[in-house]
Design goal:
- The structure is a single chain.
- The protein is an alpha/beta fold.
- It contains 20 helices and 24 strands.
- Strand 3 and strand 4 (65-73) form a beta hairpin.
Amino acid sequence: MTATAVLDEPVTAGASTVNDCTIHVATVNGSGSQSSNSVLMRSIFQMGVPVSGKNMFPSNIAGLPTWFTIRANKDGWIARKKEVDIMVCMNVATAREDVMALQPGAVCIYDAPLNCKGMRNDVTFFEVPFAKLAGELSQDSRLRKLLTNMIYVGIVAERLGIERDEIVSAITKQFKGKQKAIEPNVAAIDKGISYARENLSAQHRWRIERMNATAGKIIIDGNAAAAIGAMFAGVTVVTWYPITPSSSLCESLIDYMKEHRIGPDGKATFAIVQAEDELAAMGMVLGAGWAGARSLTSTSGPGISLMAEFAGLGYFAELPGVIWDIQRVGPSTGLPTRTAQGDIFEVHYLSHGDTQHIALIPCSVAECFDFAGEALDLAEMFQTPIFVLSDLDLGMNNWMSDPFVYPTKPYRRGKVLSAAQLEELGGNWGRYLDVDGDGIPYRTLPGTDHLMASYFTRGSGHDTHARYSEKPSDYKATVDRLAKKFQTAKQFVPQPVIDRRPNATIGFIAYGTTDVALEESRDQLRNEHGVETSYLRLRALPFTDDVKAFVEEHERVYVVEQNRDGQMGDLLRLEVGDIQHKLRKILHYTGLPCDARSITDSLLQMEKDGTRVVKIGLGSEAVTQTIGED
């Protein structure tokens, strides 16, 4: 198994490429390489070069292959790139596959015992005796293993021109100023730099040079951003069960809340509970929402499956709560540490019967922060579970971002009747009565000091006053009102972001992390092929009226997503009805984040031969389909 892919055409040698390269580190899970890889990425970032980091790791504790990919790009393109420019080979189990997958002209730095140089003659190899160098730094076997990682950081830094001062600064930040940890790691960096200068021939093909494109920016992962956003948005009850890749959202939230949400009396102003399973976590979220607390949970696909029954209760009994789904590859256990966008159907229709859930879809860490608050507001406004569809790539990987904007708007609690309002009504109100014609009823909170504040919350049939009912007319009125409420949500969910280009006959629709690859693909199509495209980025379900209008405006619209079946594409087909023949699907579902070149190549192929569906493979292969897509 390898995480790299071979280019269709060899790359020819030439002048140095500055601030545009991909570094791929192949190691073993549990080897301690995560810190060194973070230091390498941050060093480039501190030199002012836009950068991203993606960790591809196995779903076990230790011992299996892991890869970390750093992309530096002066133009700010930070999606995954298929081609690897600089490979660091440290794992005997994958060395041959990793080397064979490199593009011609690439650079490979490898551990001496791997003897990679004999594998190919069109790659530049640098052999390094890492064990020997680490042995010169420490006699402690465990420490030597860790220092080996920092030695390769020094080697890469010297090969690319990354400044030593920035590496030392990144190490200091990584180890939080702990001198005992900083000193040996700096020594390892210096060991790598010295060895490269004294023993390795020069490498001029790829260089990192200082620029000023990251000033004022931060590096953070989406799960941490969501946690910060939820804290600022007033979440008070968090219930969760650990599952990759969502666990770090609640784990981060625990740390932030302990730091910032402890009252003057030293007591917590929040409750965070690790439940016995996802079903229990969902039940607690809805119970807390019913009681008036702002509540959330985080999970992934398998957890969402377990939450189905409670999701139906929340929808039918109209109980607020927020569920973050950090999507991974399914079905079943699937690939727990790979990314996907395969939960669209599951979340949208979760539960039996006629159910439609509101879902928000962030594409960046900034939107993770913003949508954390938006979801809590919408949950209370619409008195229903709100899902937020993130994914492993966004949730767990490192992303560059502008600092988040401090929220200044008051919380939106929705239609909550106070004791004074109940008195004005003379106690005459119905919990499920649509007074305003928007499908959203009024509610009261437990503890409201009025005789008529109470009502019976039930997941069985009920009438407008929350009384048990099996009358056909009451049931139909209830589910029709819930459908009206879902339609009302179109006005309040985050609206799509639309970039209309004059005279463009081709449109793209995408969502979530596909956005970064798609924007780069549009740039490739425009600058390399003269193909101009418009683009609508979905940010929520239900669809707004803009979506059908966008499809009407273009001759062909390509829906790009990261699942096998084109789930969002199928929802769009239902939405646009008689113009669905304009829709095409570009599907990427390898478990790796989508890349721009695959989108570009797929669109050009589809424009040429009329293919309606392309399923992108790892190399040049692609599965095309026309039958059944009309």
